[in-house]
Amino acid sequence: MGSSIFLQSNSLLESLIHLSNEVSSIEKLPSIQVRNVSTMLRRIKVLTSLFEEIQESNNPMLPPSSVLCLSELFSVIRRVKSTMEGCKNGSSLWGLIQTERLSNQFHVFVKEIARALDIFPLSLLTVTVDIKEQIELLHRQAKRVELYVDPKEIQTRDVLLTLMASEKNMFDVETVKHVFNSVGLKTVLDYEEEMSKLEDEVHKQAGTGGLIVVSNINKLISLVSYAKSMVFNEESEENDVRQVSGSVGKSTSASFNVPDEFRCPISLDLMKDPVIVASGHTYDRSSIAQWINTGHYTCPKSGQRLIHMALIPNYALKSLVHQWCQENNIPLMECSSNAESEKPTAEFVVGKLAMGSVDIQRQAAYELRLLAKTGMDNRRIIAEAGAIPFLVTMLSSNDPRTQENAVTALLNLSIFDNNKILIMAAGAIKNIVDVLESGKTMEARENAAAAIFSLSMIDDFKVAIAAHSQAIPALVALLREGTTTGKRDAAMALCNLALYNANKLKTVAAGAVPLLIELLMDDKAGITDDALGVLALLLSCPQGLEAIKKSRPLVPLLIDLLRFGSAKGKENSITLLLGLCKDGGEEVARRLLINPRSIPSLQSLATDGSPKARRKANALLRLLNRCCSQSHNPIG
Questions:
Q1: How confident is the model over 291-318, as pLDDT tens digits?
Q2: Which residues, 6 or more positions from 44, have their beta carbon under 8 angstroms from its beta carbon?
Q3: Which biological process annotations from GO are given for this protein (predicted)?
Q4: Does the global pTM surpass 0.90?
């Protein structure tokens, strides 16, 4: 019982310790990203020592900034776990090809840990000198860590790409075995599982990776299949399959008893919205809010007087509760929260934003960024506390982190619709576009694009945003220069803005069309569906139609997307082909008729596509039939 009480009162730390131990105890580490994984595990073990020491100190009061930091570390470590599991459970060969992207992902995680530790009040907590020195060292190293891409993985990746480009019977089997062994593929079962994982990857990439990515994965599947037939004989294959079928274990029965640490100490019911009070104890929001609203200003468990009434969301515990409910098929209804008690925290942070030094403002902007990350109530009360005008001003800061935190906080706040109006009323669009165009970090530029996408959800703002002369050109520039996430945010913002006819011409004039077509052919861009969506919108603009017609590679690309694209990609591909064939598009129609893949693809879509795709496929088939009947036999 004492152990249960201890868990309950330290649920945030307990959640972090539990998650960190899960990461640290991952069995059979992935055979790719070995150094990045091992160094990340060392960092997490150091952080775990900090979490355990804070928990063991039984400090009844955790400063609000430490709770924010710990919540952010929980978020980062959870994403680290997901990435490590992806490396371990996903396709090893595809992971090898993606080695630079995965390395960059681990680098981003380390930088996020450094930023969280920037606001961690280590001096206010009771920890030993040894742990303090370890955390300070980790913090310093994380701030100056450089991207590490394993040269051996790059070398092996290059050999693999050469094998993929080779004809069958033209490569050395021993070379294949060496490459496959390096990523843990040694038995026929390993080869079978790898092909299954690659097939899963094809479905994941259909709407984002583009044709080149899907084609490369299919080449990998062919290579693994051929290599399996060359390396293993049928007898060993059958033995491995029998071994697998005999190793299937029985599923364990789930227990539906609510764990004590998930129960509210007041109601003893499952906590739907756990929050932390000033004493460090966690309660369900509705129960503790009712306790406070009836005039009680002490912690129900400890009897300690609460020095403030702020209820800080325990995101870590909430995530574990939701995960437990999903695993046990228990529906969990979101409860409405009494957000009024969050106002003191928001007002305190906004006060630091208004009157603090540059360092304090940077920290306050980061705290607001985290607070606004989850929960509509948080977004509302932060705006009510007057944060938006200060954040808009901070967009012009010369400090890269302050600018980045400010634009990201505004992005998070804009998810609440009423805040969109307040942000626009504060004159934010000029500053946001300035950050988009020439922000001091790429993350700031990309989050500015995401903010424009969010604000443009309101129709009236589509006009106001595009009225800024640099808004659309800056989005097109980010489409060219950004990361995959930035390109997607820019494309989605352009798609929103292009719903307004006057903005279509501006988008075409900014050079979006050839760039979007180029991105369709870029296997690293990862925005196939988004690029197709913007092109389909620009098709209805005469200038857009003319620009699209100028692209020779587009038609065969669209034909292939009819076969290999996602459902949405197929819809937009058929929309583009139909639009190009109408109104004097005889040349495009002839090119479709010449291509042997076009008619079967259209007939398949007319039978099995979505209602919209079927309708347009049939319309295009009729158009091609008329064109064909003028000179040849009609399409059968």
A1: 876 777 788 888 888 776 666 777 778 8
A2: 20, 23, 24, 77, 80
A3: cell surface receptor signaling pathway; protein ubiquitination
A4: no
Cα(561)–Cα(67) distance, integer angstroms: 48
Token couple for 359: 């360092």
- C-alpha 228/C-alpha 242 separation (Å) is 17
Q: Chain-centre distance of CA 120, in angstroms? A: 25
Report the distance separating Cα 597 and Cα 592, nearest Å: 9
Provide φ and ψ at 288, rounded to 5°. -70, -30
Distances (CA, A) of 451 to 326, 432, 455, 486, 541: 32, 8, 6, 12, 26
- Spatial distance between the Cα atoms of 426 and 424, rounded to a whole number of angstroms: 5
- Cite the DSSP H helix spans in 58-98: 64-89, 92-97
HSE (CB half, 13 Å, CA atoms) of 122?
A: 17
82 Cβ contact list (under 8 Å, min separation 6): none
Please list the residue range(s) of the chain that carry CATH number 3.30.40.10: 260-327
Q: How many residues does the chain have?
A: 636
b/e for 219-240, b at 16 or more Cβ within 10 A?
ebbebbeebbeebbeeeebeeb
Distances (CA, A) of 179 to 89, 162, 231, 272, 329: 18, 11, 13, 49, 42
The Cβ-side half-sphere exposure at 103, using a 13 Å CA radius, reads 18
**What is the 8-class DSSP label of residue 124?**
G
| C-alpha neighbours within 13 Å on the C-beta side of residue 89 | 9
Expressed in angstroms, the distance from the first to the final Cα of the chain is 77
CATH topology of domain 260-327: Herpes Virus-1 (3.30.40)
C-alpha to C-alpha distance for 85 and 25, rounded to whole angstroms: 12
User: For 160-172, how does the pLDDT look when each residue is reduced to its tens digit (9 = 90+)?
Assistant: 888 887 765 566 7
Cα 413 from Cα 381, distance rounded (Å): 10
Query: In the numeric block, which tokens belong to residue 243?
Result: 């071994």
| Whole-number pLDDT of residue 4 | 35
Q: Is 475 left (phi over 0), alpha (psi -120 to 50) or beta?
A: alpha
Indicate the pLDDT class of residue 563, thresholds 50, 70 and 90: confident
Query: Whose CA is closest to 332, among 261, 281, 284?
Result: 284
Instruction: Give the Cα separation of 272 and 267 in Å (integer).
Output: 12
**Gap between the Cα atoms of 499 and 537, Å rounded:** 7
In DSSP terms, 283 is beta-bridged to 275
Q: In degrees to the nearest 10, what's the CA dihedral of 379, 385, 389, 393?
A: -90
Structure token pair of residue 636:
């059968």
Structure tokens at 44: 């997490």
Say if residues 207 and 568 touch (Cβ distance below 8 Å).
Answer: yes
Question: Rounded CA gap, 357 and 399, in Å?
Answer: 12
Residue 245: what residue type? S
Question: In Å, how far from its chain's centre is CA 248?
Answer: 33
State the Cα–Cα distance between residues 404 and 362, nearest whole angstrom.
9
- Gap between the Cα atoms of 138 and 42, Å rounded: 10
- At 32 the pLDDT is 86
